[in-house]
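Key idea: predict the complex, not the pieces.
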Amino acid sequence: MNPFKSFKIYHLLFGLIAGFMLVLLSVVIWFSYTTSSKEFVQNTFYYQQQLLSELNKQLSIQLVGIEQTALATSQNVRLEEFASSNRTNYQMYRKKKDIEWYLAQITYSSTVIDSIDLYISYDVGPYSGTQDFGVRLLEHTQLLNEPWYADIELSDDAWLGERTLLTSRGSRNVLSYVRKLYSNLGQYQGVIVIHVKAPAIHQLIAGRGGNESTIRHLFDSGGRPMLQRDQSGKLEALSSFVSETKSPSGYRVAQQVNGAWVEGSEYLMVWSEDYSTKWKMIELTPYKEITRGSLNLALALTLIGLCALIAVLFVTHYIARQFTLPIRHLLSAMGKFSVDRKPVKLPGDYNNEFGAMFNGFRSTSDKIIQLYDSLEEQHRRQRDAEISALQANINPHFLYNTLDQLNWMAIDAGEEQMSRVLELMGRMFRIGLSNGERWIRIEDELEHLACYLEIQQIRWGEGLEYEIEVDEGCRKAWIPKLTLQPFVENAVLHGLHGRMSGRIRIRCLGDASRLEFTIEDDGVGIPENGVLPPSRKKGGYGVKNVRERLDAYFGAPYGVTIKPRPEGGTAVVVAIPRIENIDDQLGGGRYVENRTDR
Amino acid sequence: MMKRKASWLMMLTVIVMLSLIVSACSGGGSINTGNSGSSDSSGSSGGNVNGSGEQAVKLRILWWGSQQRHDATMEALKLYTEQNPHVTFEPEFSGWDGYWDKLSTQSAAKNAPDIIQMDSAYLAEYASRNQLLDLSSGIDTSKMDQALVDTGKYQDKLYAISLGNNAFGMAYNKEAVEKLGLTPPQTGWTWEDYWAFGREAKAKIGDGGYVLMDMSRDIDVYGLYQMSKGKGYYVTDDGKFNMDWETWMEWITTIGELREEGVIPPADVQVTDKELDPNLDLLAKGTVLIRQLHAAQATALDNLNPGGMALVTMPRGDEGSGWLKSSMFWSVSANTQYEEESKKFIDWFINSEEANAILGTTRGVPVNNEVLAAMEPNMSEADKMGVELIRETAPIAQPFKTEPKGWPNFRNKDYRMIAEKIMYKQITPEQAWEEIVSKSKEYE
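Result:
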């Protein structure tokens, strides 16, 4: 089904423009959403990367500071004296106190160091610290029980991830740097543990302008999580997922499936590794968070688009109305015209195709009005003709009756000739009227001619001869009534005028489609110029009538030809189509009407 | 007719569109389109500013004390945060030892906590160095005894708000004393009674333990000793060295003798003592039977062995002994960002019945008399014990002395170090005296 043929033009115009705009808009929005979200991810990655490496740098400074502190401390805190054999209790006490004091000052003067633990490998006797805030001097046996002892056993130093430190001051979360202490002779002396305040590192990593839903994780060079306790290895998985790339910085879009990380669309994962510490910071930002900007953009575009669409709808409505207005004008004009058939007023200021349509309609309707008028005229005439025919139907009875009476009067008077004439006249009347039919069979036409010629024979007495030769096959064909009679009458009245004898011959030749009647007389003939003498004018009406009728009914190549005969006299040839069926004649009749009106 | 119908249809379309936009707006939340259709969608504004408009405040607060005081204070802080959700705390606390080391380092770095627990001995020191905020306004002290308010003043400006009445006395192991069949120390006992009590108890205990604490290092106790002998405090109010050679030699020699006799523990044992620490306090461990203590520490003491401990006045001489003092103060650091919030907290701390119901006498007898009156019926035996010591000390109390500027360091560092050398027998008392005198010159 072609919509352009089945829907209303207004709906088509309105629907198509609005639909097109909608599609266009959707494409633009979708395009801007996808491009901008890509752009947003790129931007976010760029800035997060900058921020991360900056944070990592700051963190690195802090961490290196801690490590340096530990190193400096390991040089300053000499524990050899505890091993000396001639040590006194006071010296031991003083030494512990000094070390404690020294370490305490380090913690008190730093905002990130929570406290320092010192495990001494020598037996230093009982001691209760006086610097609760910052320092604990612990026995070496305790070190062996620490859960992180394995981390330090084989190396000189290590960072320990976030854990909870339980002391008399309550529990605190710390990251710890552990360093082994050696004497100048390279002898192992103990371990110093610097506890860094985890909240301070958290704060440092959180940075400024951090987003609530952004999570940053910190991993040491071995990929161990430093700031969150690893629950069922989830963070390790994150670290190894990032390490797959072997790139010190970058980004991936990933999601978590059953604890493992795979490419996906849940999080933007940006990481940065510090050059010196090899610590890696990984930032996870929900992907939705990043694309929210472009979503907002798309939303804004949608709103603007909807507003534009409304404007477009108004404009479309206006345009569609302007286009369909003339059509509706025309439709209503046509409707009105078909009802009351009066000229309809159409706008005259259209100069385009609509104007042409209006003009066309105007002239067509004018013509139709004329046609209707002529039709009405014809109907009137037809009615008149019918009335006159009816009237004419009355006359024959009166004429027949009168003729019959005359016949009887002639018989009574012994006028046999007159009686015969009257009888023939009656037969002529009957055929001439033939119930008002315009078409009769050729045999009836010929009988009519025969009656006429017999009457003339009676008047002439001897001397007039006639001959009628007609193919039997033609007798049943149809011919307009009294087509041949005027020419026969002409031949008798004018051709043989003033002659004592004459001969008239009527022949009919025909093939399947055409019939030719030839009426020949041996009379005076007609002048070579074809102009009939004035005396023959009387019969002129009848000939003219036939000519017009034949012309009207059939036109060329049918018609009447009058020409002189070489041997004297006149020959009239009447050509008509061979009409075997009266229905053809009716069709022809309608044809006649159309033609006469042209 | 047709035309009218069409425009109605159009209107309907527009209305539907606009309602779509409006719903899109309220759905989208953060977008304001600014066209007329969405002007009604005011419900979508983000709510990041709450009605009160108060900024989040984190107050750092530092105090010393025993576990009871820590627990009670933490609970009070929690209550305050519940009532003032915009205020949170970063508490730091420890025992007395180390407290001043930490505070002095932090103050030097201008990184002192917002709210500092202050002691009389250090008030002048910190106030004179302009490290404390003037608290004359913003805290309601109208329900306090004026004399108590005045203890927080330095050069007529209020730098510290007293948190409680306190008395310096002694705590002893009542249970053990009764078991040994000894006469418990009585209010108003003398130094001679004190030494004798030590020797008597030692005789009953034998080698298994000690009786008295080694107070060599505690110059404030020696100060009281000297005052009870009528010789004044170890330093004069205007900062002059005021130790009496004879009295001090008597004091340090007696202690030395008692150490030899095993009445006082040897230095190695003595230095492991940590006041009111359940595992390290020598009294709590049963290593000794008696130690110096403040009335404000009564609940902590009781907690070491509920019902088994008792308080008694500081031994006296010809003159009275022990003193009444303000237990401790709240001061505000001059470097605080949150002056108003800090004052508001202190005001609540001293004047709120709820707060004091939690705190009890962990910082001495509450200073707001109305609050105290409301609390008294509900006081525990331990609280009453503290109040009793204050009451008993009052008639014989020496005037409370604060160290002049600089002298806290002499007391806490130099004197202690010299005394420790005596304890460890590194030097003789005579040698120590010379060191003390020469050191004191640095402070005069």
